[in-house]
Amino acid sequence: MLTVILQQGINGLVVGSLYVLVALGLTLIYGVLVQINFAHADIVTLGAFVAYFVTHLLSGNYFAGIAIALIVGGALGWLLNTAIFAPLRDRGNELLPLIATIGVSIMLQNAMLLMFGPIPYAFDTPYSNHVIRFGGIFFTVQNLLIIVVSTITIGLLYAFMKFTFVGKALRAVSQDRETAGLMGINPNYIIMLTFIIASALAGMSGALLGPVLVLTPFAGTSVIVKAFAIVIIGGFGNVEGTIIAGLIVGLIESYTTQFLDPGLIDIIVFALLLLTLAVRPTGLIAERRDENV
Amino acid sequence: MKMSSPATIESSVLATASTFLSSRRLWLVVAAIAIGLVPMIFSGSYWRTNLIICAVNVLLAIGLDFVLGYAGQLNLGQSAFAGIGAYASTLLITKLGVPFWIAFACGVLLAALAGMLLSIFAVRLRGHYLAIASLGFAVITYQVLLNWISLTQGPLGIYGIAPPPPLTIPGLPSISFSNTANFFYLTGGFALLTYILLDQLVRSPVGETLAAIREDEVSAASLGINCQKWKVFAFVVSSAVAGAGGCFYASFVGTLVPDAFFITESFSVLAMVIVGGMGTLIGPVVGAILLTVLPELLRGIGDLRLIVYGVSVTLVVLFMPGGIVQAVRLIAAVLRRRFTDRPASTNP
After folding, report:
1. CA of B137: which chain A residue's CA is closest?
2. Across residues A84-109, what is the average pLDDT?
3. Which string of DSSP letters, residue by residue, matches A7-57?
4. What is the Cα A288 distance to its own chain's centre?
5. Of A67, A74, A182, A271, which has the fewest beta carbons less than 10 angstroms from its beta carbon?
6. Which pLDDT tens digit goes with each residue over B20-60?
7. Could you list the residue range(s) of the whole structural domain that residue B49 is in?
8. What is the pLDDT of residue A293?
């Protein structure tokens, strides 16, 4: 029993750390821009497909796949900001960019459908079948890789936000864009950078999620829906809260699969979301955003 | 010198003409005639199906616009309300043998109750938080429909749902709703009726109250408006209308699967409202018809059609932020100004 709990705990943390990567992107964008980006999901999906094809073309070089997915994600983020968010930014309507990203999302999903077809891809990395045994607990090298890569990435991101000048500028823009502008920070540059970082994270997490997901052009939707829940449970725009909430959702997912019914995962996650909103709308770690609650 | 007397006369004539043209009664008559004629023009079953789906989408879109465009509450749960209406009415008919119209009323009522439940969150949250809360509500509803297999048969779906019973008026031949034209008259007529009711509502003090809440909740509250009560009201109306749309959808299509009420359906309805023009009632109607018909018209280009659909939604948002209705109004205003200026400039 204990081994089952431990085993599922590890599985949950693996998936949870990937959700954290996706949700961090959303929360970063929300932080600087106060905008929801629905196309984030499709960057995740595209990242998974890019990694799949690169890995296959380079006969099993999964790391190259991850790197290129990261670059493609970042490039798409830049494009999204330049084409959609920057032109709409000064119109002052919070709904328009949201709808525009829904349009982009429909476009990207169907472009991928056209290119890759509706049949799920079996994405086996060279590390999927190497199983490490540790007492009664099993995990694949792939899982280990996911944990290592996401921990390093989250650590780097945290250090970047906390200690570098650009990271501090980013947080300044999140807190108050106008004042940050008065302090000589160019908010447009910071917003663009945030989009690139967030989307690169999405591309990379897609590359890592690819082997876990049922890889179809619509795979991102189920991930992004959970990512939204994570972002709210953790507190919109809050990095620490997002990390904790992401891991909690990963654990809920694995334990629900083990002890209850996989069909209940989304119900439990979103019940938790609604409960958070009802009881503590600022999220697990409160950041003052009075205008929303 | 611009306003010489012939121009004033002319502009007053124009003004009378334009008040006549913009008089709501006239347009309602035009709409009723259009609903009457359209199934005769499109007699094929393929296009009639699209017509009925259009009418259902019009219901969902004007319902959403009431809560979004007038009360300013972003609700991404419209698919769930339609789903609740559809499943509730269908299950009452198939499992308990309840007559169609009673089941219909129950479906609408249940959707309205669900809207009231969601509005508990709307009372406390705003903007994106409400958007995600309503999205969460839609996800939970979808998952319940998918996983409560003993009740909804899950992904297998419910098949063979009968159309509404024939309408018999003494002295007239009975109207069968297995005829697609009659079914369109039913849904289109219902949509028109809903439109008229909502139109009356938004033009009444209720509409002004909702607009006050939308523009500035604190000021509205300081004027003695009970914001919470009115938000609940807006959600209940919106979800009831969506529930009615769902009931019609189920009884027309005849099969019910949870995927018809996936969250992306909420996004489609939202796109209809925005593309048509939020905050007007005619906008969502235009948007719903356009975005339902557009993918069908584009069938010729095969798989590219949904890409074109996505691109068009994006472009409308980028270049027509007020939607099609506002763009048309702007063009009309420019034309009218030109038309009224001309006599003045020719008679110096």
Report:
1. A270
2. 80
3. HHHHHHHHHHHHHHHHHHHHHHHHHHH----TTHHHHHHHHHHHHHHHHHH
4. 23
5. A182
6. 556 777 777 777 788 777 777 777 777 788 888 888 999 99
7. 5-346
8. 39
Query: Nearest CA to A53 among A152, A128, A121?
Result: A121
Specify the pTM: 0.82
* Residue numbers in A near B267 (CB within 8 A): 38, 102, 105-106
**What are the phi and psi torsion angles at A38 (to 5°)?**
-75, -20
Among chain B, residues having any CB pair with chain A shorter than 8 Å are 74, 120-121, 124-129, 131-133, 135-137, 139-140, 142-144, 146-147, 263-264, 267, 270-271, 274, 278, 303-304, 306-307, 309-315, 317-318, 321
Of B121, B271, B312, Cβ closest to residue A278: B121
Whole-number Å distance between alpha carbons of A1 and A212? 25
Which DSSP string do the residues of B77-125 spell out, in sequence order? -HHHHHHHHHHHHHHHHHHH---HHHHHHHHHHHHHHHHHHHHHHHHH-
CB within 8 Å: A99 and B317: yes
Nearest partner of B53 among B225, B324, B288, judged by Cα = B288
Structure tokens at B115: 């809207």
Which spans in chain B are helix H? 5-22, 24-41, 45-65, 78-96, 100-124, 127-147, 149-152, 180-203, 205-215, 217-222, 227-253, 263-276, 282-297, 305-319, 323-346
CATH 1.10.150 applies to domain A2-292: no
CA angle B222, B227, B229 (to 5 degrees): 140
Q: Do B124 and A281 touch (CB under 8 A)?
A: yes
- Residues of chain A contacting B314 with CB distance shorter than 8 Å: 84, 100, 103-104, 107
Contacts of A124 by beta carbon, 8 Å cutoff, 6+ apart: A211
Q: What is the CATH number of the domain that holds B99?
A: 1.10.3470
For residue A159, the SS3 value is helix
Assigned token pair, B140: 């939970």
Looking at residue B165, the DSSP 8-state letter turns out to be P
**For residue range A61-91, what is the model confidence (pLDDT) as tens digits?**
778 888 888 899 999 999 988 888 888 877 6
Task: Show the low-confidence residues of chain B (pLDDT under 70).
Answer: 1-22, 171-172, 302, 341-348
Residues from chain B that touch A276, judged by Cβ atoms under 8 A, are: none
For residue A121, the cross-strand partners are A215
Q: Average pLDDT over chain B, rounded to whole?
A: 81
Domain residue limits, chain A: 2-292
